[in-house]
Amino acid sequence: MYAKSPSAIRRLRSAGFLLACGTCLLGTGHAAHAAKPAPPLSPAATLEDVVSSSTAAWDRVVVLPDGRLLVELPRWAGNTGPGLALLDGDNTPHPYPDNTWNDPATPAAKRLVAPSDVQLQPDGTLWVLDSGQPDPAGKPEAGGPKIVKIDSHTGQVMQTWPLDPGMLRTGSYAATMRIARGHAFIGDAGIPAMIVVKLDTNTQRRLMEHTPALTAHQPITVYGRVATNPAGHTAIINISQMDISADGQWLYFEPLCGPVYKLDTDLLVDPKVTPIELEEGPTLWYKTPPLGGITVGPDGTLYFNDVSTGSIFRLMPDRVYQKIVTDPRLHWPGGSFATKDGQLYVPAAQLDRTAPLNGGHNAIEWPVHIYRINIGSLPPPKF
């Protein structure tokens, strides 16, 4: 056993791991306290078809302050157009933030090579994680992996932070990111780890490598079928979904196969935290199925996009857990976005039908859609 200093104990207590109830277990693999499952919402939440595409597979969406949709088009899914596209009034896609940032002739450091995650903050700041890897199984382009900060009001790139090549391993893939407390928290889905970037100094640290909470331990199943890589083997995707509480205190994340963990960002921003503290830091928050997205709603409710059954669940702040809709149209519900006025936008991404997750064969059934759910009008659970 490792003895912890008084300061370490204080950090863990402030992180919510030593609770007054006395029934909680410290460490990875133990939930803070049990959620209360509620019967499925009846009637189920209504899906409104917002927009569709017969040429591009979208896996993430955000709603800009002016109401337009910004979509991410993963390179590895077979998309050939821009990595980010803004849908105008008639839903025509335009390269975002402009043509130059999506032009293959532009140097990789000034181009969106292969965006893998986006985050829109309340002030309109858009953060983009560029993996720099059109093929997650390949090598990133030199200068490609980076963080890009964009003013969504003007569409101007404000700053970029290149990822230090030393932060990535052979087989790494920078898949997901959230910004808070002056730091970027990046999940490596290839060689599981958390990369933490202090933005004002561009100080970068690679933490928690191979920590169980970041590591996939089971297959990804979609309607009972196991997702396979191009070689026909079971697809393994480590930490790849992430969201953060409004105050930046709690990071929610999961390997794609599930489950969801919760981690106090105090443990990530403090360079004095030891590897053992970080190993023990994640708390199992809910034993979810494979998820295509985790979204924190305006009231702190977590929305889980279940790719195994085409369902969306909500985990409310009082830890009531409920399925709000199951619909065959939600084939691989991807990275969704919750607006301040209570609208949840969900892309039905069909990623399990793309070549990297379908044994090397692309079988997307066009068109793909983005749906909207009025989560602000959903009734409370009934038991």
Automatic annotation (TrEMBL):
Its main location: secreted. Residues 1-34 form the signal peptide. It is found in: Secreted. The keyword Signal applies. InterPro entries: 6-blade_b-propeller_TolB-like, MRJP/yellow-related. It holds the Pfam family MRJP. Keywords: Secreted, Signal. PANTHER family: PROTEIN YELLOW-LIKE PROTEIN (PTHR10009:SF18), PROTEIN YELLOW-RELATED (PTHR10009). This is Gluconolactonase. It comes from Komagataeibacter oboediens.
